[in-house]
Amino acid sequence: MNKKVSLKDIANAVGVSVALVSYVLNNKKEGRINKAVAEKIRATALAMNYRTNQIAKSLKTNKTHTIGLILADISNPFSAALARVIEDEADKYNYTVIFGSSDENPGKYKKILDALVNRQADGLILSPPEHAEPQIKDLQQQQIPFILIDRYFPGIETNYVVLDNYKAAYEATQHLAGCGYKRIGMINYASSLFHLAERTRGYLAAMTKNKIGFTADYLQEVNMVALKEETENAVYNLLHHKKRADAILFGSNVIAMHAVKYINQQQYIVPKDIALACFDETDAFDLFYAPLTCIKQPIKEMGQLAVRMLIDNIDDNNTKIKQVSLDGELMVRASTLG
Amino acid sequence: MNKKVSLKDIANAVGVSVALVSYVLNNKKEGRINKAVAEKIRATALAMNYRTNQIAKSLKTNKTHTIGLILADISNPFSAALARVIEDEADKYNYTVIFGSSDENPGKYKKILDALVNRQADGLILSPPEHAEPQIKDLQQQQIPFILIDRYFPGIETNYVVLDNYKAAYEATQHLAGCGYKRIGMINYASSLFHLAERTRGYLAAMTKNKIGFTADYLQEVNMVALKEETENAVYNLLHHKKRADAILFGSNVIAMHAVKYINQQQYIVPKDIALACFDETDAFDLFYAPLTCIKQPIKEMGQLAVRMLIDNIDDNNTKIKQVSLDGELMVRASTLG
DNA sequence: CATTTTTGTTTAAACGATTAAACAAATACT
DNA sequence: AGTATTTGTTTAATCGTTTAAACAAAAATG
Question: How far apart are CA A324 and CA B279, in angstroms?
């Protein structure tokens, strides 16, 4: 009794063909339709509370007006902010977003990707985990429009929008050096992900440039699993180094969070005992007595650009490949005061 | 040349009918199909990289295996955590999530809701903004399964999973009173949303119970728009009251965040000058010198329950209405030490 | 051996929309 | 008046699946 209302129902109610109802409701065949009939159809559609069955429409038109989004973890503030921007921007173009969190797990990533592709998402915005190259190549072969965001694989020619991680890390390290810190450590993920490697590379370049005495163990790499423990160890190592570090650059907000909690707990004073800087801006640091100097990513631009590039690609799928590196903004705050 | 592979293509390649291919790929008609043929079909499907067109399947089966999710704002940690749990739980049942942020804006909410319904989501999980009653009633009339989460409208009989806000606020206030605070203020949203009113009601009940000298202006209500300014004013009012407040309970993590920043800026010391407690647990407070005593919501249970209840409803849409109020957990921390 | 049953497969309708093409009636043109 | 055009509407195919029903051939039964 409560079956959904279809074009057919309206057609029957008004006494016209399904086609005519479709034409009216889509404002096609503009001039040709009898004004009175059109009005009656519209009125009946409203009265019967008709809603387009997008599924049927999609099947016919081969367009779902849907964007698939895979991020690392929607409950991480960076991902969440990105998701938010993408959602808003997609909405402007009348697209809906379907999403999933990969959890940095290639298997899970693949599963979500499959679901999105099977659901005929018109295009995808992806933040791929490690070892996702095969799936990327699959997408290319299937000619499914997609944009990588935050990360990319230098070996594969794809559209992407990312931070210039090298430059950002370089500048942050330069800033630390400029403050007079001599023994600058870095804690970054042990990962094959290129964007993370770029952060390390930027740090190392600045270290070399400044001819600061660098020892290999100033660069501490931590694993995603057991991140808390490994981060705490890394901090410990840097602070108990024979040449004790006087500043640390963190490869992400999550690492920084663990580290700061530990540093707090150990009663080190920032920046007197140790200066800190990190990637990603986070609310959390605002309440810390020495808010962290950080590299603020242009999340809004990243998200908006990704959506626009994707939609361009959907609309005309032989647009040229676009690769965008945006600059971060170094927000100098109390954790690195001279 | 790169058209997607359909059942028809496989059928042609193997030399059988489309129906047979469908049967094989869906493991229907188990015993009856020739083993060799079945194997060949499966092999061909794999070789051709066939992927079910979910759109077509959905049209026929009238099931999309999709859950629509509307939260207030995906970039708020509470929403994000909820989204994450819901996503994970939905995945367990092979459902995909489509989401949107209402931004507490009824118009936007309605728009997203429409999109989700038109896309034939099998069911919805909703955190409705103010004035969303009409849409709720619409859904009921259309018999679309849905579960309210975090919020509900007491005037409408619906499924919901929420925090027992009254109890949580009552207990938090009791705790403050127990610590010896006598002049306890509350800063909450000026809103018609029932769950927020419940927080106020719990606070007031505890104030009455403890016979603490309550004056109307110990309860400060702030507007969502211009939240920062109004929160700062509210804090100012409480601290410049003729009977200066010695403790404040905040109606949400967002309010608390603004308030703490302001309190910090004004150089008040927590909890010596002013004790604090708030709703919602947030990472951010961990780095504050006096981490905030807070009411931790059982986000995981809420999300999981909502998904399970929804799927029960989808599978059998005359299950009885279920209304769940979960208890919060008061996390006592340094902001309310005696 | 005739009949029933089982096995393996195909036919065809349906889901709810879109849209080119066909058609009929009214109007305009020469 | 006869033809061409415009106006208003319908017919029917199609998108890629699912699935009941029909069918044919092989196997089992009496």
Answer: 41
